[in-house]
Amino acid sequence: MKKRYLFIGLVAFLLFLVARLPLSVALGTSLPSGLLASGTLWSGAIDGVSLPQVPSSRIHINGHPLGLFTLAYEADMGLNALTVQGDGRFRQSLLGGRQLNDATLSMDLSVFDLPIPLFGQFNARINHIHLDTDGNCTSADGTLSTDTLVRSSANWGWRGPDLIGPVRCTDQGLTATLSGASQGVTVGVDLTVTSDQQGHVMVTVDNPTAGLSFALLDAGFQSLSDTRLIWQSQYSMTKG
To answer: Residue ranges of the domains in the chain?
Structure first.
């Protein structure tokens, strides 16, 4: 009986120590460059999260102590900025590797400084993203979508389609390919985030109308042929 109480007391003491462990120490080298952790392992925050042309934001962390019994740190994460909202469950294995499960993200596109002003929402529904110890994407499943071409039709006198596509892992990193077609015009958007948190966006427009082609060329698109226009941009996911 005394041994049982001793064991329970020891576990309680260890949990007490872990509960006071600084988040920065717990995440250690797994925290990408440019991000700052504050608070404790079970109630903390990560600052410096950056999206292209969106001010730096804070992610709130609420940990789950029971995850330690599976040799992993698990926490619910929430982002609630003025133009960006998101949540999901993060899992950091004590043996290496990271996961993001059951995550959502919604962004208001009107705040982006783009060649042509866009309106509407960008939405992500992530079932899971798995990264290895080096930050390389090993498995991903989810969907990205946006209604911006429908909501922004006044900019070019053409009502575009909803864009939707899958999230997956490729040799380049975490990628998503959105597409849609309307009135004979096909639009594709390729998004890539590499293991060192660098992002790349490529937009292609096939068979644009004369008016749409003129508006896109004036906004910085390049002509690859008589029937295809392209726009590309690169950005960093972290500040610094």
So the answer is: 2-236
